[in-house]
Amino acid sequence: MIFDKEGNITTVFQENISLSTFIKNLNNGYKNIKGDHLIINLFSFSELGANDLLEFLELSEKHRKVDKSFVLVSDKIDYENVPEQITLAPTIKEAKDIIDLEEIERDLDLFE
Questions:
Q1: What is the pLDDT of residues 1-55, one digit of tens each?
Q2: Which of 11, 30, 67, 112 is least buried, going by the fewest C-beta atoms within 10 A?
Q3: How many domains does the chain have?
Q4: What is the C-alpha R_g of the chain?
């Protein structure tokens, strides 16, 4: 598992493994990154569907409860099929933009 830390944002990715192994490794390494906003880079997964994203729901909700952003990144999924509780961006840049916007919302006490 690769953690790329930039300021208070950590991008997580890993090549050539199954989604279930990726999620297991992410949960195991979570204690090291729980204080950062997280971008989960899913570009290495060639076959990925909206239902696969549900595997991240529990960790996403846990992370958001401590006022940190959790954004999945993939351009392979139709956004209309993604549950409302999951934040998905098509690029790393857009994921960082989402985090910036969420930080502003938190500062203004607008974030739910």
A1: 889 999 999 999 987 788 888 999 999 999 999 999 999 999 988 888 888 899 9
A2: 112
A3: 1
A4: 13
